[in-house]
């Protein structure tokens, strides 16, 4: 809804005031983690830096927000059941951007997939559960190493 409102209210993304963009991005990034204290100060600023400013802000809208549409994923979503390679899906149980049901649907659609849901984690799993995610990824790569 945040980005739809901005798309609907501003014909030219460059006209969105920098302060409004900064506030929206800060709010959205704080939603990306379950442990809200993780997305503050220096970490938050490091995520905001490439998304704000005279280059980052227009680039974000032109190359990301402008493409927030299911039409870009629906064509290959139909092909997911045809995948025949190992797929691991990692999902935060408290993801505020994309609900867990999306992960469950991916698992149903990709026959060769496994789904790992992390409790007390949001969309940015690498922030909420870095050690558990790293261990899961290493295990997956080791299981499917095809030297």
Textual characterization of the structure:
- By secondary structure, the protein is mainly α.
- It has helices spanning 2-9, 18-31, 41-48, 53-63, 71-77, 100-109, 125-128, 130-143, and strands at residues 87-92, 113-118.
- It folds into 2 domains: 2-67; 76-143, no CATH class.
- It has a two-stranded parallel sheet.
- Strand 1 (87-92), helix 6 and strand 2 (113-118) form a beta-alpha-beta unit.
Outline the secondary-structure elements.
Elements: H1 2-9, H2 18-31, H3 41-48, H4 53-63, H5 71-77, E1 87-92, H6 100-109, E2 113-118, H7 125-128, H8 130-143
Strand order of the largest sheet: 1-2
Which range does the strand content fall in? 5-15%
Q: Please, how many domains?
A: 2
Helix content: 40-55%
Return the average pLDDT rounded to an integer: 90
Runs in which pLDDT lies below 50 for 5 or more consecutive residues are none
How many runs of DSSP E, i.e. beta strands? 2
SSE order:
HHHHHEHEHH
Based on the model shown, name its key terms:
single chain; 147 residues; 2 domains; 52% helix; 8% strand
Structure summary:
Strands 1-2 form a two-stranded parallel ribbon. Helix content is 52%, strand content 8%.
């Amino acid at each position: 809804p945040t980005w739809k409102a901005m798309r609907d209210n501003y014909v030219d993304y460059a006209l969105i005031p920098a302060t409004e963009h900064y506030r929206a991005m800060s709010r959205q990034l704080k939603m990306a983690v379950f442990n809200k204290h993780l997305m503050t100060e220096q970490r938050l600023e490091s995520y905001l830096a490439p998304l704000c400013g005279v280059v980052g802000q227009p680039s974000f809208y032109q190359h990301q927000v402008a493409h927030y549409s299911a039409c870009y994923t629906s064509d290959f979503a139909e092909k997911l059941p045809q995948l025949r390679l190992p797929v691991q899906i990692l999902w935060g149980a408290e993801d505020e951007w994309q609900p867990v049901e999306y992960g469950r649907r991916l698992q149903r659609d990709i026959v060769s997939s496994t789904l790992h849901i992390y409790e007390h984690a949001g969309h940015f799993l690498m922030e909420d559960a870095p050690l558990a995610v790293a261990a899961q990824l290493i295990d997956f790569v080791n299981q499917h190493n095809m030297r």
